Amino acid sequence: MEHESSSTATTSLSATKASKKPSNRKLIQNALEYTLLAGGSMERDRLAALQAMTLSTCENFIVLLKSTRELKFRALYEHHTDRQHVVKLFALTPNSPPVLTCDVIGQFFKYNTGKKEFTAIDSRSFTMRTDACALKDEIVFKKKSGNTIARLL
């Protein structure tokens, strides 16, 4: 009899795990609060980004970083795992693209909560492991006439 109830409990636990969709919501919230938008000067932007996440029904998010060299927050995107693109949810600048596809991404990143930093991952598309991305440098740093560099982000 005990074996039967233990088996039922294991089955219901497995069903609960299977029905729960993977999410990086809490991880991205931590990245925004403690790394990307930390501090008093960023409070307004941090609260706005967190509010946008709260209102979203999506469970996975991608942070757009300034560039592969400067890992600074630029925008937050919804990542629907059944699609090969991400859609803008919140941005600090109006220049952030409304949709990101893999062909404009220079590098993908994973957030390490222990070290509170983003580390590059070897990927060519948005996956469940992806927490952030940076546009290709030639998109971010476009040359104007002459030698000056215009920053898009």
UniProtKB/TrEMBL annotation:
Q: Which domain of life is it from?
A: Eukaryota
Molecular function in Gene Ontology: calmodulin binding; microtubule binding
What PROSITE patterns does this protein's entry cite?
Answer: CKK
Q: Where in the sequence does UniProt note compositional bias of the Low complexity kind?
A: 1-17
Q: Which residues form the CKK domain?
A: 12-151
> By its UniProt entry, which Pfam families does this protein fall under?
CAMSAP_CKK
Q: Where is this region: Disordered?
A: 1-21
Can you say what this protein is called? CKK domain-containing protein
Species assigned in the record: Globisporangium ultimum (strain ATCC 200006 / CBS 805.95 / DAOM BR144) (Pythium ultimum)
Taxonomy of origin reads: Eukaryota, Sar, Stramenopiles, Oomycota, Peronosporomycetes
